[in-house]
Amino acid sequence: MAATATMALPSARSCKPNPSTTTYKLSSSPAATTLVMSTPFAMNSWRCRSSTLNGSAILAADVGAGGRRREEKKGGEDEEWRKYMLPERLEVVRQLEAWVEEHVLPLLKPVEASWQPTDMLPDPAVMGTEGFHAACIELGERAAGVPDELLVCLVTNMATEEALPTYQSVLNRFEGTRDATGTDGTAWARWVRGWSAEENRHGDVLNRYMYLSGRFDMREVERAVQRLIRSGMAMHAPSSPYHGFMYTAFQERATAIAHGNTARLVRAHGDGVLARICGAVAADEKRHEAAYTRIVGKLFDADPDAAVRALAYMMRRRITMPSALINDGRHADFFAHYDVIAQNAGIYTISDYRSITEHLMRQWRVEELAAGLSGEGRRARDYLCALPQKIRRFEEKAHERAAQAQQKPNTIPINWIFNRHV
Ligand SMILES: [Fe+2]
Ligand SMILES: [Fe+2]
């Protein structure tokens, strides 16, 4: 992978020490006096609060006198990312099209060379009826050893994949790269459709495995998927290709990690079929991550000031999981509870969040950015360079909270697994 192999503006970066990178400001906003995780690890749902106020007091202040301030702040935020809709900025994106054709589209696999869900699961067309039934029984026996917390994580991973209509809509909101007609011939549009077609196999294979395993109340799972797609997902700077591709690069790596961790853990519990499925999905996610990381790398090369400001904008607001609105139809705070399960199971943790942040910043050589940065760009770079250390402090707190939580487990019945408590 060569995310930043070709640099349009080599002078935009410098390996020399830069005075403004030697000392990083740890907090740029007085409002961010203490950042806490909303759950023991809360991979994506951080919130700021004053050390003397609890969450509901903050909310009340927001709704009351602070409501106007919040609206004003929101207007300012909108103004910030809407600058990325200006013609000169979109021109940067448009000029990348030939490069996308050459360096991004080849990351898609031809249909003939792609695995299909049927390759991973018992197939009556190959095995015959008896062989198929025997293989299904064997699949169920292997699945019987997978613990409940991993089953719950698998449902969320699968529902996240099944919500693909939401993500294709997200990509088709990006100005300058969208597939306007549904059959556009641009390299951008062909990427979006090809990527979506590959992603579509992920939900299919997980769903089918789950159905055959007999370990899930599939009707409840199906309802959760329907609810999630109905709810959609919130995304900052929703039409900006700069911000959007950064979000997507982060998310592809996050899903690769989550599926990869699932593969490792279920294999340890004896389910080689599920491990192979999750491994294949994770490998796809890594290819997709490479594509989006390359795209953003080119944006950093061509337009470093705008790129670094966009990245800081996204990271200040956290990269939230696309499944943040998932729920079981019964618990209002279901996702917060799920966060804890995923952390404790080792599927996706705040340490993963930090490692993704560090990895992408290395890929995009954020620390080396120097020439061509505005004052705002330098502040954005310094904020980003200080961020991993900041997250590390939350990790320590998260581990402490997780240890405390294990003393007094707070479980809920989850209908996806027949109301067993997790
Ligand atoms: Fe996927
Ligand atoms: Fe993906």
Automatic annotation (TrEMBL):
BP term (GO), one: fatty acid biosynthetic process
InterPro entries hit by this protein: Fatty_acid_desaturase-2
Subunit details: Homodimer.
Protein name as annotated: Acyl-[acyl-carrier-protein] desaturase
Signal sequence region: none
Family (UniProt): Belongs to the fatty acid desaturase type 2 family.
Keywords: Chloroplast, Fatty acid biosynthesis, Fatty acid metabolism, Iron, Lipid biosynthesis, Lipid metabolism, Metal-binding, Oxidoreductase, Plastid, Transit peptide
Pathway info: Lipid metabolism; fatty acid metabolism
Taxonomic placement: Eukaryota, Viridiplantae, Streptophyta, Embryophyta, Tracheophyta
Cellular component GO terms, alphabetical: chloroplast stroma
Domain of life: Eukaryota
GO MF term (any one): stearoyl-[ACP] desaturase activity
Annotated localization: Plastid, Chloroplast
Region (Disordered): 1-23
Cofactor annotation: Fe(2+)
CDD domains the UniProt entry points to: Acyl_ACP_Desat (cd01050)
